[in-house]
Amino acid sequence: MKKILVMLGAMIISAGAAFSTTCDMQCAENPYENKTFISNIAGTNFLGEKIANIIIKKEILKDSSGDYKVDLQSYNISALARGEFKSLNIVGTNTVTDGIYASYIRLKTLCDYNYIEVNNKENTITFKENFGMAYAIQFTEDDLNQTMQNSSYMEMIRRVNGIGNASKMFNISSSSVKIKDNKLIYVMKVAIPLLNVKKEIAIETDVKARNGKIIINEAELMTEYFKIDAYKLSSLINYLNPLDFSMKLMKNKDANMQVKEIAIKDNKINVSGIVTVDKDVITEQ
Predict the structure, then answer these.
(1) Are 252 and 276 in contact (CB under 8 A)?
(2) Which of 111, 151, 210, 239 could cross-link with 215 by S-S, CB 3.0 to 4.6 Å?
(3) What is the pLDDT of residues 75-110, one digit of tens each?
(4) At 88, is the secondary structure helix, strand, or coil?
(5) Contacting residues for 162 by C-beta, under 8 A, at least 6 apart
(6) Does residue 24 have a pLDDT over 50?
(7) What is the DSSP-derived secondary structure letter of residue 17?
(8) Is 266 left (phi over 0), alpha (psi -120 to 50) or beta?
(9) H/E element holding 2?
(10) What CA dihedral angle connects 177, 180, 182 and 188, to 10 degrees?
(11) If DSSP states are collapsed to H, E and C, what string results for 241-256?
């Protein structure tokens, strides 16, 4: 179960953003619809669910820190043992996964029948039916700034500086973000070798979801000292986009991930969408 939860549990949903559940995934026919089972009446299924919730939470905490709550609903104890279940809901607060910080996490399955087979002997997990979850992400200003300390993000800065240093035009010494009046402000401290000056550049932007990705647009230079072409400015900020960077780190080769909606509300950024795994995909535990 570990790889499933690392792949899907690392993705995030916020209380302030509605689930966006529109997707082309076809749910499997539910063989347990309108059926009653003895294990439900006897209470053994309830006990099985509680044990499963404890195991799932334990696996999540192996690769992510934060306060997590897990709610798995099953049909009966035998189905649960096979990996068949009704729904899975995961909620987390103040999470850190692979260097990505988020204030609130929630995931919710899309279908009322899910079948994930775990083979402990072969150490594999097989998605026996199409599997999907609605997700979203809530980032605060502090979340983004801590995520930008990630070594992979710093490598992006170094690559940009490699271009700037080669032309002796600029060198970014530091970068950070602010969220003010529901606007994302990207701040860079830049050295201009030719002019022998150092300056702080503040760029105010808006964010949108486009073609399943997060795009920063309407970039506006707030620092009067510099004159930068608007297209080049947007291209630079989209390359260094900390939101898109966070989402790319969370992607997995076995999962199809789409961003459906993004909004800044109460100076918090909410991203919602869908992550799906196709039927018959096999991955390692």
Answers:
(1) no
(2) 210
(3) 888 888 888 999 999 998 999 887 889 998 888 999
(4) strand
(5) none
(6) yes
(7) S
(8) left
(9) helix 2-9
(10) -30
(11) CHHHHHHHHHCCCCCE
CB 150 within 8 A of CB 99: yes
pLDDT at residue number 19: 47
Q: How far is CA 113 from the centre of its chain?
A: 24
Place of tokens 């992400």: 137
Which is higher by pLDDT, 109 or 124? 109
Residue 15 has a pLDDT of 29
Task: Order the strands of the 282-284 sheet from edge to edge.
Answer: 84-85, 114-119, 124-127, 282-284
DSSP state of 227: -
Residue 238 confidence (pLDDT) = 65
How far is it, in rounded angstroms, from Cα 235 to Cα 219? Answer: 9
Closest by Cα among 258, 250, 262 to 274: 258
* Buried b / exposed e along 132-145 (16+ C-beta atoms within 10 A): bbbbbbbbbbebbb
- Render pLDDT for 164-222 as a digit per residue (tens, 0 to 9): 555 556 677 788 889 999 988 888 887 776 667 777 888 888 787 777 677 766 667 66
d(CA 152, CA 159): 11
Structure tokens at 108: 């919710």
Distance CA(79)–CA(77), nearest Å, equals 6
Please report the sign of the dihedral spanned by the C-alpha atoms of residue 97, residue 98, residue 101, residue 106.
negative
DSSP letter for each residue of 99-147: TEEEEEEEEEESSS-EEEEEETTTTEEEESS-EEEEEEEEE-HHHHHHH
Q: Which residues contact 21 (CB under 8 A, 6 or more apart)?
A: 110, 134, 274
- Give dist(CA 64, CA 67) in Å, integer: 10
**Phi, psi dihedrals of residue 82, rounded to the nearest 5°:** -80, -15
**pTM exceeds 0.85:** no
DSSP letter string, 272-283? EEEEEE-TT-EE
Token pair for 200: 């702080």
